Structure formats: C-alpha cells, structure tokens
Amino acid sequence: MSADYIEGHNLCSACGLENHSPSVVVSRGDPTARLMVIGEAPGEKEDLLLEPFVGRSGLLLDKMLLDAGIDSQKDVYICNAVKCRPPKNRRPTKTELQASEPWLCQQIKLVDPWVIVLAGSTAVEAVLGIKDAISTLRGVWHSWNGIMVMPLFHPAYLLRNPSKADGSPIALTFADLLEVRSRLEKLKSSTCNQIADLHRGGN
Question: Which of 21, 40, 131, 170 is the most exposed place for a label (fewest CB within 10 A)?
C-alpha cells in the first residue's frame, strides 16, 4: 500500500477517511524498539499534533508504561490501526480497518518488534481478527506471525474506570504491562545468550 503525506496532510484515499480528516497520524516513539503498541485511531488532539496517544489517554498510557519500567520514548513504537481520525471519534468500521491493514502490517514488518501490545478491542480485531470482549482477551498471550501479542484495556476505558483497587481494570492493566516487561527481558536475555554462543563458536 502506498500512502503519501506532506507536512501531515493526507493524500491517501484507501479508507475514505480523508474526506473527514485532513491529516494522517503515523507514529511516535522509537522505530527500532522491541515493543510496539497499537491503538484504535487518532482522536482530536492526535489529529492536531500528528502523533498517536498524546491526549489524556496517551498521558495515562505513558505513565503506566513508565510505572512498569518501560520508557514510552525510548522503548516503544506507538501507532494506531487506522491512521486518520474518524468523524466524531467514532470506532473505525470494518471496511476502514481492512483498508488500513496493509499499512499497519508494513509498519509491523519494518519495526520487527518482539512484543506487540494491542490497546482495546478495535486493535485486537485489526491485528488478530478476533471480535470479542476485551475483558476476556486481556492478559492472555497470543501470537501473530511469530510475534508475541498482549491485548490490554484501552487507556480511554481506564479513564472512565479510575479505581486502582485489586481486580480493577487499572490494576489488571498494570499487571499485564509487568508481564509484557518480563517477556521482553526474557527475550532479550535469550537473544544475548544466542549471540554469546555464536561468538564462542567462532573462536
């Protein structure tokens, strides 16, 4: 899929949202990161600033990542399943998700992450093709083309449910992020051991 943009102005007509939003929001974070976070679609603030997850949801996401020991600027590449803001921030349609899929798959291919976090049910549908309640999907590891995938509650849902009590969505999400960090550390350790073995074998 080819999608051109100049200074954030959308020249892509794949999904039809260019009729409602003049901007394309690609990503933020480190494109060489081992962790990739995929959300739903840009909101109003993201549409203005041309970066995903920069509103209240994004601030909460960054804080929870940091609390789990993950730096959103250095350790994560963040994008959305759909690159343009749907009218009135509605959920992207199935047609829009399908039209945006080649671009998203190309992003995943280029970043080549070890772990993908899917924030919310729309991201789960876009990547895994599963339409189910996020409450039943979160916290369970999945695999996509050999990449480990963890669904999470969307930060917007956490803002509507701010309790931090045991078993609350926020507490569950924090536990999921700790599991993500643990998996990344194990993969890093395994990779380092493999490199060390290759070096020893070459001596």
Answer: 131
Domain of 179: which CATH number? 3.40.470.10
Q: How many domains does the chain have?
A: 1
Taking a C-beta distance cutoff of 8 angstroms, is the pair 39, 125 a contact? no
H/E element, 116: strand 115-119
Quick one: tokens of 191?
């990779």
Q: What is the pTM of this model?
A: 0.87
| Cα separations in angstroms, 196 against 7, 112, 157, 184 | 44, 22, 43, 18
Q: 150: part of which helix (H) or strand (E)?
A: strand 147-152
Query: What digits encode the pLDDT tens for the residues 65-119?
Result: 999 999 999 999 999 999 988 888 889 999 989 999 999 999 999 999 999 999 9
> Which residue from 188, 183, 26, 15 is spatially nearest to 98, judged by alpha carbons?
15
Q: Which domain holds residue 119?
A: 5-202
Model pLDDT for residues 137-173, shown as the tens digit of each residue: 999 999 999 999 999 999 999 999 999 999 999 999 9
